[in-house]
Design a protein that fits this description.
Number of domains of chain A: 2
Distance between the termini of chain A: 48 Å
Largest interface: A-B, 72 and 70 residues
CATH superfamily of the largest domain in chain A: CorA soluble domain-like
Largest sheet of chain A: 7 strands, mixed
Order of helices and strands of chain A: HEEEHHEEEEHHHHHH
Strand content of chain A: 5-15%
Radius of gyration of chain A: 34 Å
Oligomer: homopentamer
CATH architecture of the largest domain in chain A: 2-Layer Sandwich
Number of helices of chain A: 9
Strand order of the largest sheet of chain A: 2-1-3-7-6-5-4
């Protein structure tokens, strides 16, 4: 899990602004797709080199350049040069262990956040860094690998559904962020299901595996919380930023997005509280069961050990043991033993151990 | 319990502002009731379609439109169109997993909060989302299902009791909020009773079921706390909002409502602290009882196991065991055994185990 | 303990501002006492009806009207009418489950807080709500029952001791608040004594009752903390309020009062920390004792069970057991058994269990 | 430890500003020492009455009046009268359970704080209240008893070392505060040593006494933290105060003092975290040892109890037990018993209990 | 670990601003190295005395004076005199137990922080204090000993790589800070590896040593957190400082550095949460194993103790025991014993203990 920091050290000592891809190489090749649209027109294509998409900078249409794969540093460098992106910001984009952040660089706004996807095979949430550059009439998004949560958004642009084709680049940036945050709810839902399953296991048949599963979920939440917490200030900052890039028209949308973010954080906190309560319950049910085990042992031992002692007495081979000769001694001893056992049972009954 | 998030994912990928009802379908049909009143007049009726209640928009009387049931999206859409409600706000109203919020949209104010009702059968609190639109001379309230906590309020309007018939729409909105918050105290009271019952069970006869019941109450509080916490900022925001819709006259009422909200939050926190203290007490009483069980076992075993060994010695069949021939050996052995037992009892007495 | 919420529900559904006494009926009849004084004059009397004390409103002397008992709503209503007190504030005064608060209503200032008294019989702190209305030249105080912490203050007024007779109504209000907060220290002191007693019990002879007593004190503190916490903002608010009713002259007194309040809160927090540390110590001492019990059991059982087995062997009745015939077999076996026991004792010694 | 509150109640009901010494009578008689100095001159003397040191008020030299012992109220009253100190502030000086505070009274500044000294005999930190009045050209300090941490400071003044003789009264006040805070580090160091000793005891041979010692240190820190926490605002307030008494020249000194205060608070927090981690470790080491004890018991009992049973079988006296007649039955039984024991040992080995 | 405070007391009582080296003497001699550079020129040399590097103060080039070793107070004093550094700041530089801080002294800015290095032999992080004085065209850095994390930075200056040779002294100061913070990630990475190893040990074979190792890591993190936490305000303060020494050009670099600092703090918090979760898991796995041990004991004891008792009965030597004469009594007893054992096994199976 702390793999995040494994690669960071490879960068230690380099000049700030030196472009090195920090992170796992998640995709084979870098893919660039460009979408250009306004209310009437729509063009979508895959481009080989960044230079192909430069004309769009001058066009009045909205352009969305999506870069999948960060390991080819030259691609980011070329984009940086053409779109005037500060080297430190290029560095941030390449460094996939980045904390979510928002930065207003006058001619563009950078938003870095984490895209969560639930990997059903591993039954755990996966995280991927996504960086968004919002310019005057373009949005550039950088992802670590192909495959994302934006297909429905692309469908809406292609089909001209909703208001997206009639809005500017800032609405596109908002729609991208909204898709990302929407997917957080999918992860929350999966976690919610796991919590439900665990809660049920806890009340019916708690096993050490249940505890381990609760522990794993807890650590997963702790680790991903780091990606979600800073979102509050990122989206809040975006709402408050005094930049012409963020027009008044999208203020309600950003506020809505902010509300969703708060809701995500609230839910994560609630999950943590619930899991913590469940751990307490597990621990006390372990204590309870131990108590029961001990009671069984104590009752058996306390009843039969004295009886065995009595039987042992009359198993002794002394020559002079007058009781042994009396014909009613044996049944009488049975009586004594039954009385002792009954007395002890009564004693345990009184103590409410039975 | 995390059913809240189950339905959210069905909305992922849709365009923001797309109207989809997110939540359980709690009522069969959508019911719209309209109350129109001022100091002299009062009309109450059930309407079939939203259009019927449009004339009231122009009238100087106060109108309260109450919509029960959110699953028919077209109803909300029609209301939205006629009363000029932003699509994102319509979406919020339909999304029943909403966090409590307040939004000032100039021509109207939206307040979303949770209505709590204590279900005595399930012995737990139920939550229902209620959205309130406060306009110039109207209030529209949206509920998930029929049945609410507003009957006493309706009675006051019908009977002309109190000052409500002489006040404007904002007082009506306040009165609705006040009814909701007042009902929180009913839930708090029920929780208080459950805590009292548990506390008593804890001091007289703590059982694993007691722990489970404490756990359930804790989780219930954690989950509902999410609905109550944001109320502080919602009501506080309403108090501070610089809108002509909120006149100075109702400021003391809102302050009073705010005080109640703080009191609810305080009580929830107190309950959590008390429950947490009770869990600690339960756990230590489990330890205490275990201790007692162990002491009983130890005392029995430590006394009789050595005695049984002594008896075992003289049960051996060696040909040359001179003690067996001595006539006073048997009574002497009894003496030894009683001495051993007494010595051990003294030892345990000294250790304060008896 | 959550009796506080029991009565609240009886008010649910009533119009805001409806006057209903919420709380236990603590006194039989409502008593009104009036003190009127300035530097030279002093009059004290019990009045039958509120109207009797109206003339003092016009007089330049300071008047203190003290109302004991809240169950007669008409008394509060009459006072409210004559002194121009807002219905919502009258409601607050009657609702004894109120959170401490301060409100500046221009012509008067309301302060509601809790008076703590230590009930030595029940050995727990009792809480009573007290509401103070500070007007231009009068102070009205409302208490739930007769009997209060103000006797020394009354004595100072009667005897003309200190500066009180020469100061205005706001100094009187301060003196009342000061008396209340001073009494908090008495309760803190009693709690301190209980903590000391418990701490001693913990180090000498911890018993389950000690734990229960710690738990009770903890819950008592949690519950009363609710009354004390909001005092910080109440007194702080009073210090900062921009009202002519609070003159500059009493600023140092209010600052002093504020310091005392902070000190109370600090002490309550310290007590909670100390109690929490004591609970941890208790729990670990339980574990320690359990450990000791187990060691005794283990040592006894581990030594005598093997020996009993050896004795059991030679108690068998096989026809062919050559050892039984050997004359030195019996003493030799004793040797073996002593060796086994010694070896085990040495083993436990090495493990530091002895 | 809560002796702090024992005496407070003796003051309840007195008029605010009434001078009563609240606290333990730590010194026999009140001693007043006066130091008067500037760059060239230096006079030090013990005075009998306060009046003797009044001329210094007019002189341009810096005067330090130090009062040891607070039980003689008249001394403080006389000083108060001559130096114009508000009665409430005189009260604060006399009340030794005071929370550290700073107050700017225009003509002088009051600082109250706690002086910590480590009592090596009791092996615990002792606290003493010290109040400092900073006037135009004088500093008055009040201590509970003789004996303080200012000897080195006095030495510097006497010897004219450092810059102190060339600076004003505010530098003297700073130097006094600095001496007090410097001594906090001595206490921290002693605590650090105790923690180190405990940590070592914990890893080598944890005993119940170790736990008790950790508990005592924890309570000591909790209790003294109350004295240290408010220092942050006291010194911070002194730094920010807009008084001509605090000249710009000593700003860097105050900032330095503030840094030290933060460092003290940081260290106290770190100690608490470390102690809390140590308690956890102790508790789990107790669990671990219990586990080991149980394993030993279980192994012994589980092996020998079945064997004893087998031996018991052939100790029975039935007339018809054919096995008893067979000559190889006895050695065969030995074989069986060894096999059973070996099997059980293997079983425990597999479970990693051996 | 609290060695930090050991030396502080040696300073108690000295005049503020007295220069005494507080800390361990880490290096043998004081080494001063000077680097002077601009875009074209670069000179690096070791100097004997501080005076040698004075000419650079007048030159337009950037000068980096690095001092290794703090025990020779005269060196710092000489530098202080020549560069106009306040005695209190010199004192701070010499006091190695300093809390990280930033101070703007108009003609220069002081930054003190901790340099972390991971000592692979001791397998723990080592801390060293580094103080940086940023002047108009020079940077002076003070370290406790030779050997630091700046070699790559020096390499960049020597080789003229990156933009450093073209930037001013403030960029150099930033680059030094950046190197220090970059190294924090190396330590974080090492801690991450240790956590991973512990986590694995925890799921496969938890041993008391695992717990001890977790405890050690926890204490290490608690202790070093003290060095990292204040960095947020140090770097944040540097970003906001209104000094001509910090030009606009380096604002984005400082913001970047600030982001890294926040990331470090986030990670430390995450580590603490993860470790705390692991401790809980360890403790419950101990409980689980104890439970298992107890079950084995209980099953063995509960089955064989009653059986031994039965065998004991027929080992008694009474003259009149009719059962002993019956030929089928012995096999019948075997049947009874097998039935008892089977019944108990079934009982335990039902209880899910098997």
């Amino acid at each position: 899990m702390p793999t995040l920091f494994k690669k960071t050290s490879s960068k230690t000592g380099l000049s700030p602004g030196t472009l090195v891809h920090v992170g796992e190489r998640k995709s084979e090749s870098v893919t660039i797709t460009v979408m250009t649209y306004d209310w009437e027109t729509f063009v979508e294509r895959k481009v080989r080199s960044v230079e192909e998409c430069l004309p769009c900078k001058e066009s009045p249409t909205v352009t969305w350049i999506n870069v999948d794969g960060l390991h080819d540093v030259s691609v980011i460098e070329t984009i940086g040069k053409h779109f005037g992106i500060h080297p430190l910001i290029q560095e941030d984009i390449l460094h996939t262990g980045q904390r979510p952040k928002m930065e207003d660089a006058d001619s563009y706004i950078l938003v870095i956040l984490k895209m969560l996807r639930y990997d059903d095979n591993a039954d755990k949430a996966q995280t991927e860094q996504i960086s968004i550059i919002l310019g005057d009439n373009f949005v550039i998004s950088f992802q670590e690998a192909e495959g994302d949560v934006f297909e429905p958004l692309r469908g809406r642009i292609r089909g001209g559904k909703g208001r997206i084709r009639g809005m500017g680049a800032n609405y596109l940036a908002y729609a991208i962020l909204d898709s990302v945050v929407d997917h957080y709810f999918v992860v929350l839902e999966k976690w919610g299901e796991r919590i439900e399953t665990l809660e049920e296991a806890l009340t019916t048949n708690p096993k050490p595996e249940t505890l381990q599963a609760m522990h794993n979920l807890k650590q997963e939440i702790i680790f991903l919380r780091k990606s979600v917490w800073p979102l509050r200030e990122v989206i809040g900052g975006l709402e408050r930023v005094a930049s012409p890039l963020v027009s008044d028209g999208i203020a309600p949308y950003l506020r809505d997005l902010y509300d969703h973010t708060i809701q995500v954080i609230d839910s994560v906190e609630t999950y943590q509280d619930i899991l913590s309560g469940m751990t307490d319950l597990y621990l006390s049910s372990v204590s309870n069961r131990m108590n029961e085990v001990m009671k069984v042992l104590t009752i058996f031992a306390s009843i039969f050990i004295p009886l065995t002692f009595i039987a042992g007495i009359y198993g002794m081979n002394f020559d002079f043991m007058p009781e042994l000769k009396i014909w009613w001694a044996y049944p009488a001893l049975w009586g004594v033993m039954i009385a002792v056992a009954a007395g002890l049972l009564l004693f345990f009954k009184r103590k409410k151990w039975l």
